[in-house]
């Protein structure tokens, strides 16, 4: 029970490299806590996924978000299909598509729902989902909600994945042995609990060999990996067209909220009409959308500064096991 005091600490500052937390005490061995009214300052932050330090209350991102809040307000009050489609949303989606190198993209207000509500729109009964055993809960939930048959392969194990692919082709659907309507491989770019990077070149080769589709969740890799910070596809130097559905979130590298799906225009147009997250969910908050636009332009080097280059160099050093000494804008 003693370890409970390490989690769910109330924070009262931005999630930077250092942050302030509310002091609390316990009188029953951490079953419950009481706030003392005091604040513990400059606590080293080792748990946030504010990877590039964009979730700050000062600087270009914060200033742009404030300006957009004055222009549009904090909320939208409608869905994208009704009265909640703003020019800032369309600007964001055009930028995402250009950043990813794909034909089109769509932004969503919640990262978890980007997976859990879009996978059911892509697969269903008579389809097969091959899922890495360490996939995030949002991917697992989306697969279950789809009604597809789900088979799990060992983490990053290409032999396990290929065996499932081969068996799926040879045997087809249970009982009827009809060919599967669709086979979808679902993986992550970086697995959050293990820190391992997906063996993407090998998965792409298997996907092409067995004519399957590939769904790639780049929640933790987009913005942080690759020479241009464009994720694991960029990291391996692959063609974005090799990945059928590119998914990611804005909660990590971009210091915001929400998620995206990128791919062919036909795919995105289909999701706009069939995804529950697109049709029924309230539109992304305008200042959040602007936060993403500003931070993404910084990563792309389109903000007129060298900050994006600095952040890229920092992560190159970290992934090369070289220590970065001195103050940085990141907390990892």
UniProtKB/TrEMBL annotation:
GO biological process: ceramide biosynthetic process; sphingosine biosynthetic process
PANTHER family assigned to the protein according to its UniProt record, in alphabetical order: CLASS II AMINOTRANSFERASE/8-AMINO-7-OXONONANOATE SYNTHASE, SERINE PALMITOYLTRANSFERASE, LONG CHAIN BASE SUBUNIT 2B
EC number: 2.3.1.50
GO molecular function: pyridoxal phosphate binding; serine C-palmitoyltransferase activity
Broad EC category: transferase
Protein name: serine C-palmitoyltransferase
Subcellular location, record wording: Endoplasmic reticulum; Membrane
Similarity comment text for this entry: Belongs to the class-II pyridoxal-phosphate-dependent aminotransferase family.
Keywords attached to this entry: Acyltransferase, Endoplasmic reticulum, Lipid metabolism, Membrane, Pyridoxal phosphate, Sphingolipid metabolism, Transferase, Transmembrane, Transmembrane helix
Span of domain Aminotransferase class I/classII large: 41-293
Listed InterPro entries: Aminotrans_II_pyridoxalP_BS, Aminotransferase_I/II_large, AON_synthase_class-II, PyrdxlP-dep_Trfase, PyrdxlP-dep_Trfase_major
Gene Ontology CC: endoplasmic reticulum; membrane; serine palmitoyltransferase complex
Cofactor or coenzyme needed: pyridoxal 5'-phosphate
Primary localization class, coarse: endoplasmic reticulum
Pathway of action: Sphingolipid metabolism; Lipid metabolism; sphingolipid metabolism
Organism: Nothobranchius kadleci
A Pfam match: Aminotran_1_2
